[in-house]
């Protein structure tokens, strides 16, 4: 049976963009949302864009988390802790969670180019504390903008993947590779998410200053695979 990838917060721009890319790559995607009806509507919208054969479903976040093998957290940082508390008894052992969350000040009414201080050091490390035993975590996909993900053109961006669990790191890297133009780069331990998350604020500032929507990052001198 094909694996199922849940995108929690999948009706937002980032979640929608990731769902678009992975469904186009042949993955079975579950759109999760606080509002199941909205999730189903988003799934129908994507199916209309991609084709009737698209493997995509819409449901509430808890149902999506319970049914998946891989869950991708794309909710705003301000709502992530509440969602993770709600899901604590829902996860299946062996589930892999990929956290894309960035603690931007914009989530509390500040500037999107500024970071919030997180007691644990990063949004990913906060998520790690709130996951039950048997559920592994990788931090990734922070620097892929929603505008770049919404179509089907190559995104031209490297994606740093940070985790203390090799299986989670491998799964996240594999999903990055399903996005044309994206390249997964081993970012080391989960604690390095502190650096990676801050790059998002920097890229937002670059987009604003240069009046573009898809500024990304590339690392030179690395092997191509």
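Q: What amino acid sequence fits the structure above?
A:
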């Amino acid at each position: 049976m094909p694996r199922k990838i849940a995108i929690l917060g999948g009706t937002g721009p980032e979640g929608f963009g990731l769902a678009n890319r992975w469904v186009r790559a042949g993955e079975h995607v579950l759109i999760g949302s606080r509002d199941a009806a909205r999730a189903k509507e988003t799934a129908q919208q994507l199916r209309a864009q991609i084709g009737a054969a698209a493997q995509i479903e819409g449901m509430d976040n808890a149902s999506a988390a319970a049914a998946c093998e891989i869950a991708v957290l794309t909710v705003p940082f301000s709502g992530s802790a509440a969602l993770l508390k709600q899901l604590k008894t829902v996860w299946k052992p062996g589930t892999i969670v990929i956290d894309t969350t960035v603690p931007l000040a914009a989530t509390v009414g500040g500037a999107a180019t500024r970071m919030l201080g997180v007691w644990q050091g990063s949004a990913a490390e906060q998520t790690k504390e709130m996951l039950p035993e048997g559920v592994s975590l990788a931090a990734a996909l922070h620097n892929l903008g929603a505008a770049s993900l919404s179509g089907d053109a190559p995104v031209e961006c490297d994606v740093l993947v940070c985790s203390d669990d090799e299986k989670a790191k491998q799964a996240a890297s594999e999903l990055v590779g399903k996005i044309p133009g994206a390249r997964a780069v081993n970012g080391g331990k989960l604690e390095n998410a502190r650096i990676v998350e801050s790059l998002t604020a920097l890229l937002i500032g670059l987009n604003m200053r240069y009046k573009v929507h898809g500024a990304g990052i590339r690392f030179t001198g690395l092997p191509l695979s």
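Q: And what stands out in the fold?
A: DSSP finds eight helices and eight strands in the chain.
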